[in-house]
Every structure is written in structure tokens, then in C-alpha cells.
Amino acid sequence: MLSINEIKKPIAAEIDVFEDTFKNSMYSSVPLLDRITHYIVKRKGKQIRPMFVFFSASICGGINESTHRGAALVELLHTATLVHDDVVDNSYQRRGFFSINALWKNKIAVLVGDYLLSKGLLLSIENNDFKLLRIVSEAVRQMSDEPIYYEVIRQKTASLIASCCACGAASAGASDEVIEKMRLFGEKIGIAFQIKDDMFDFGTDDVGKPLGIDIKEKKVTLPLIYSLSTCSKADKKRMINLVKNHNDEAEKIGQIIKFVKDTGGLEYAETQMKKYQDEAFEILNTFPEGESRLGLEQLVRFTTERNK
Q1: Domain assignment present for 300
Q2: What is the DSSP letter of 288?
Q3: What is the CATH number of the domain that holds 26?
Q4: How far apart are CA 116 and CA 76, in angstroms?
Q5: Which pTM value belongs to this model?
Q6: Distance CA 96, CA 93 (A)
Q7: How far apart are CA 69 and CA 144, in angstroms?
Q8: Closest by alpha carbon to 102, among 120, 82, 76, 117?
Q9: What are the pLDDT digits (tens) for 163-209?
Q10: 227 found inside a domain
Q11: Looking at the 3D structure of the chain, how many domains does it have?
């Protein structure tokens, strides 16, 4: 599989410019805020979401200044939700670094999340990017609805990647029909991406201990949902009891992980992930062949076939 840097090559120059745009969009004259946002920029991830924005714009007409603002808007929103999620989950690490709430406490972390969200909104309003703002605002609205597995991932992870692809298309001046097509493409990728993420939870860490992070948080994801739906009533009752009452015991977590593996939960999740991936490719293949379509195809494969 190609590395993320190899996939990024066609838009590498645009991503470099975007990094400055994103950094500048978070600037504050308040020293504490500026120090925290500088810390956020330093620990940036793989930039998969901005890449979806730029490739989507490229395949729909071309990258322009509006595309850069759209990418910054999505990334500001995404970063704000991560900061808020860490507070809600009482999590002290993010991507191997200390989280904002771990370093500066919950109250400041909540305010920083609010600040990032407001900067994104202002960036759009000041540049009359109302179409982009409407697309991303829909993603925000969908991030807090009923907790049913596919609905949760469609309305959180998937809605954000969907807004990346829709924003890219809208920034390039695409028609409403094409924008909706790119939104649906991104939604399917987002669902496949999250299923892949959930599958990782049923592995082991670097020293061989069972991961089970979702289990510790009592989150029931697709592999476990499938296994519970196909097992005996006695096994179902026993597993639910382990998840509810013994979710902080490594031995019990190991039992849950073994149960999911033995009952085909991971194989089922893999099948579902590939179904969404194939549906995304069907949409992508309606666009003309070229560097941008190839870039999106490679990015899709990276997000759904990665090993970590």
C-alpha cells in the first residue's frame, strides 16, 4: 500500500499552503490561547480530512482560495470536537500526546474547543463562504443524535468526511447534484473508516495486552453487535455482563475479544467495511479518470486498509 506522503504528492504544495492557512486561522492575541493552538498545530495528524477536501475540489473543477478556507473550516471543526470529546471522555492522551484537558484542565479545554469552532465560523462568514458553512453546519448538527451504531458513525465520523468532500466540490463551483454525489461518497468512506477503526479495538497493544478501549468505555461496536446477535442467550447475557460490570479487567476484556473473534464478528465487520468501500468506488468511478480520481482512490484505500 502507498504511504500517505506518496498519496499526497499531487496536492503536496497545496497542503503546505494550507498548513499556513490553518495555523493563521487559529491565531489569537491572547498569549495562553496562542500557546495552546501552537501546541495543537505541532501535533497534527495525517491530514486525511484536508486531503479529501483538496482532491474533491480538484476532481470537481480545481483548487482555489475557497478550497483552502473550506479545508481550514473542516479542520477547525474536527479539532474542536476532539478537544471537547477528550473532556467528555476524561481522556488524557490524543495521538500519543497529552490532551488539552490533561495539560490545561477541563474548563480551559472547553473554552479552547469553543474558540476553535467560533474561528471556523468567522472564517467562513468574513469571506462569504455561506455554502461551505451550511455544509459543515449540517455535520455539526448531526454529531449529537441517537446512539444507534450506524447512525452514530454516520452522524459523527462519516458526516465530517462527507462535509470534506462536499466542501471541496462546492469550493470548485460544482453543481448541487455533484456536491451531493461527493457528500454521499464521503459518507460511505467515513462509515468504512469507522468500522475499520472499531476492528482495531479487538487486537492487542505493543506488549501483547488486549486493547478493548471501546469495551472499557462500554461502547458496543459492529464486531460485538454481530457476535451478540448470533450467539446463544446464555452467551449474550454473559458477555453483556462482562461489558457492563467487568470492563476494566484485562482478563475479562480478553474474554470479550476472544468471543468476538471466535463468533465471526471481525469477519462480518470486514465484509461490511468492504461493502461501503465498494459503494464509494462506484460513485468515484462516475468521475473522469485522472490524477485527482486516482488520488481519491488511493486515499480511500489508505483509510480502509491501514494496519493502525
Answers
A1: yes
A2: P
A3: 1.10.600.10
A4: 6
A5: 0.77
A6: 6
A7: 25
A8: 82
A9: 999 999 999 999 999 999 999 999 999 999 888 888 888 875 554 45
A10: no
A11: 1
